[in-house]
Write a structure and sequence with these properties.
single chain; alpha+beta; Arc Repressor Mutant, subunit A; Alpha-Beta Plaits; four-stranded antiparallel sheet; two-stranded antiparallel ribbon; 5 helices; 6 strands; 34% helix; 20% strand; extended
């Protein structure tokens, strides 16, 4: 791996942990000039290596009604296009957050959000299941998030250490 790739990988690892890090702070952390870091970030954005920046929100603490579901989708691949066209059709729905091609009994994993279990169920039965290449779905509702994108979602407990008194 060349020096440029090592630099990029280190920048990416840092941005993945904290996308809000100040580039000057990142430059100090990496022992480099801020301009060099800023140029690499801009170049990686232009090349679509960095595709966007996101804020992770614990919606359970906001009082907003929100249901997240993982939908496994089995499809018949289309000639000369495999799974790409059906994946594109699915990811264009605004309710859909992500679509992944996966291995195993199902072909695609779709994550989506709705206000209620019923809203998500209706999306699956009225929009997703009727798509012609779709031959089966399985819906899994997320009931509680313990860890998401590397971040523990529950409050930290006190120390596990025993209190020692004289």
């Amino acid at each position: 791996m060349d020096t440029k790739q090592k630099l990029r990988n280190e920048i990416l690892r840092n941005l993945e942990k904290n996308s809000r890090i100040d580039l000057g702070e990142l430059a100090i952390l990496m022992g480099m000039e801020e301009a060099e870091i800023a140029n690499e970030v801009a170049e990686m954005e232009k090349e679509k290596i960095i595709c966007g920046y996101h804020t992770m929100i614990n919606w359970d603490k906001t009082g907003v009604e929100k249901v997240t579901a993982l939908i496994e989708v089995r499809v018949t691949p289309q000639r000369n296009q495999g799974f790409d066209r059906i994946a594109e059709r699915i990811y264009n729905y605004p309710e859909v957050n992500a679509v992944y091609l996966i291995s195993g009994a199902y072909d695609l994993l779709v994550t989506l959000e709705g206000k209620t279990l019923q809203e998500v169920s209706l999306f699956v039965s009225e929009k997703l299941s009727p798509i012609e290449p779709v031959i089966g779905t399985a819906t899994h509702f997320i009931l509680k998030k313990y860890k998401d994108h590397g971040t523990i979602m529950l409050p930290k407990k006190g120390s596990d250490r025993m209190v020692v008194t004289p």
